[in-house]
Amino acid sequence: MNFLHTMLRVTDPDATVRFFELLGLEERRRRDVEAGRFTLIFMGVPGEEAEVELTHNWDGEADDFGGGRNFGHLAYHVDDIYALCAKLRDHGITINRPPRDGRMAFVKSPDGISIELLQKGGALDPAEPWASMDNEGSW
């Protein structure tokens, strides 16, 4: 058995694709389904098989699912959690749980989907400004 993908309903596909590109994913394929009035966008980490399927319902049905419809989160190992969080912050992404411990952070996609970032290979030494931040990304 192989994990294939996680599907997320999104309201703004362009903003969501940009968000996942900032995380390091690439768009692999896109398909408009005229009969069903939706678009499928598949994104993945280069060199890995698993994907995130973004589903955009043209008539706005995603707005009715609120809060991710009991969806938990996506998780990714990252090479440098501090550098990635700085890049995301510099692009206006809120860091909901900063990487104070050098090991874990949480950010949210444009549709409010929680993304967990885990430092590959164990925690980095605490570093500023992250070590001084609280859970709301404030000092």
Description:
With 139 residues, the chain is of the alpha/beta class. It has two domains: 60 residues, 2,3-Dihydroxybiphenyl 1,2-Dioxygenase, domain 1 (Roll), CATH 3.10.180; 68 residues, 2,3-Dihydroxybiphenyl 1,2-Dioxygenase, domain 1 (Roll), CATH 3.10.180.10. Helix content is 15%, strand content 34%. It has two helices and eight strands; from the N terminus they run βαββββαβββ. The chain has a four-stranded mixed β-sheet, covered by helices on one side. It has a four-stranded mixed β-sheet with strand order 5-8-7-6, with helices on one face. The model has no long low-confidence stretch (mean pLDDT 87).
Terminal CA distance reads: 45 Å
| Secondary-structure arrangement, i.e. CATH architecture of the largest domain | Roll
* Strand order of the biggest β-sheet: 1-4-3-2
The major sheet is characterized as: 4 strands, mixed
Overall outline: elongated
Percent of residues in helices? 10-25%
Query: What is the SS-derived class?
Result: alpha/beta
Q: Write down the CATH class of the largest domain.
A: Alpha Beta
Tell me the fraction of residues in β-strands, as a range. 25-35%
Per CATH, the superfamily of the largest domain is 2,3-Dihydroxybiphenyl 1,2-Dioxygenase, domain 1
In round numbers, the mean pLDDT is 87
How many helices in DSSP terms?
A: 2
Could you give the topology of this structure?
Blueprint: E1 5-9, H1 13-23, E2 26-33, E3 38-44, E4 51-57, E5 73-78, H2 81-90, E6 95-97, E7 104-108, E8 114-119
In a few lines, what is going on in this structure?
With 139 residues, the chain is of the alpha/beta class. It has two helices and eight strands; from the N terminus they run βαββββαβββ. It has two domains: 1-60, 2,3-Dihydroxybiphenyl 1,2-Dioxygenase, domain 1; 72-139, 2,3-Dihydroxybiphenyl 1,2-Dioxygenase, domain 1 (Roll).
